[in-house]
Specification:
Blueprint (H helix, E strand, L loop, with lengths): L7 H9 L1 H8 L9 H12 L5 E6 L3 E7 L3 E5 L6 H17 L6 E6 L4 E5 L5 H17 L18 H5 L1
Parallel strand pairs: 3-4
Antiparallel strand pairs: 1-2, 2-3, 4-5
Helix pairs in contact: 1-2, 1-4
The structure holds iron/sulfur cluster.
Iron/sulfur cluster binds next to helix 2 and helix 6.
């Protein structure tokens, strides 16, 4: 895998749980049929109908929708893992910035909460994101599964059975 192939969901999983990231990087997929994943998809298909949805860039960046061509939006169902969501969206801005697209802003929308937050890419984010990209490449190359991170999200995680049974 190369740095250019790192997707937004990989950044999200990096901040959620390194073991989840490792499973995903090694193509162990358990999301189909998981009720939280299904809820996310339902929200995605039922929200913001008038906007241009699912813009895929270079096969790695999947923007939920664009409003007015200059505001990208990511839809999340809850704020429970907000840092991961923010870093995913900062990565979208970083990815676009690396390709000289800088006249764009970003929001995370929580339709169930009727809230949204603005996400900005700051100078200090660049080295952080570059370190994360290097780490993700290391996880992709490693045959060693990271230890599980036992947190409240495990109960709802699509990989729960792999970690706990
Ligand atoms: S069940 Fe917990 S430890 Fe296992 S992948 Fe999911 S979040 Fe990580």
């Amino acid at each position: 895998m190369t740095k250019e192939e790192i997707s937004g969901i990989m950044i999200y999983y990096y901040y959620v749980c390194k073991k989840k990231l490792w499973y995903y990087l090694h193509e162990i997929r358990m999301e189909a049929g998981n009720e939280n994943v299904e809820l996310g998809k339902l929200l995605d298909t039922s929200s913001y109908d008038r906007d241009n949805k699912h813009i895929m860039i270079n096969g790695v960046i999947n923007i939920d929708f664009l409003r007015g061509n200059h505001v990208l939006h990511e839809i999340k169902k809850s704020k429970s893992i907000e840092e991961a969501s923010i870093m995913q969206v900062k990565y979208y801005l970083y990815y676009l910035h690396q390709r000289e697209v800088t006249n764009i802003s970003a929001k995370i929308d929580y339709p169930l909460l009727k809230q949204s937050i603005t996400v900005e890419l700051n100078d200090e984010d660049f080295p952080i994101i570059e370190n994360v990209l290097t780490d993700i490449l290391d996880y992709a190359a490693s045959e060693q599964t990271p230890p599980k991170e036992e947190t409240a999200i495990c109960k709802k995680c699509a990989y729960h059975d792999l970690c706990y049974i």
